[in-house]
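Entries read chain and fold; for instance:
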Amino acid sequence: MKNQQAFISRIRTALGHSADLRRRPPGGLFPDHPPAHSRNRLSSFENRSAEERLRLLKRLEAAARPLQIRLAAVSSLSDAGAAIVDLVDRIEPEFDRRKRVTAWRHPLVDRLNLEAALKTAGVPLTVTEPLSEPLDREAADASRRGLRDGVARSSIGITAADYCVADTATLVLKARPGCDRGVSLLPTVHVAVITLDQLVEDLGELYAVLRWKTDGPPSTLPHCVTMISGPSKTGDIEAVMVPGVHGPRELYLFVITGRS
C-alpha cells in the first residue's frame, strides 16, 4: 500500500498537482498552466542560443549515424532545394519505370521551389493539397482517390517536420490538412526538411513543447503525432535485419542552419 501511494503521488506531481489529494483544488484533471519543470524546459527551448543549437545539431548527427539516417546540414532554403532536386535526379524508382515524387503542401516545403524544378526535369509531382472549396460527395471522393493514387505511386516523399529530437534523431510530425501521413510512409524514400530552431534536446523537452506551445486551448496535445527514428526496418524473421518492410527504406534529413 505504501509503494502504491508513493507511485500515485508521483503521478499527481507530474501532472502539476499536489501529491496530497486532499489539498488538490477543484477543477479539471489537467492543469491550465505549465508546472515549474515544464516552464523550465520551455524556457530552455525558446531561449537557446545559436551556439547551443549547433551543439544540438552535432548530437543529432551522432544519433542519426547508427540509425542510417542520411543527414546533411545546409545553409539556406535554396541550398536545400537544390540538394533535393539533385537527390531526386540520382534516385532510381524501385517499383515503377517512371520516377514520381509526392510532397506536403507546407510553408517550408513550398519555399524550396521544387515544383518548377521537377517540372523542368519531367518528374511528376503530387502535392497533398487540402480541399480548397466545397465539393459534392462524388467530386470530393474522386479528388481524394486521385491524391491517394499519386502518393501511393510515388517513389520519393518530401515532408517538413514540426520538431526533431536531437538525442534520438526522431522526427516529429503533427497531423494537419495538407500534410498527409502517407507521404512519409508509402514512398520507398522519405526526404524531410527542418530548420535549426526546430531541434529539441530530448523527449522531455519535446513533451513540454508539444503540450504547451499550441495554438489551441492550454495543455491541448495534438490528436495525432507521427514519430520517425530512421528508415523502416525489422529483424522479426530469423533475426535478419530487413529494411523497408513497413515504410521507407531510406531517410534523408536536411537541416537548414541559416535564415534565408
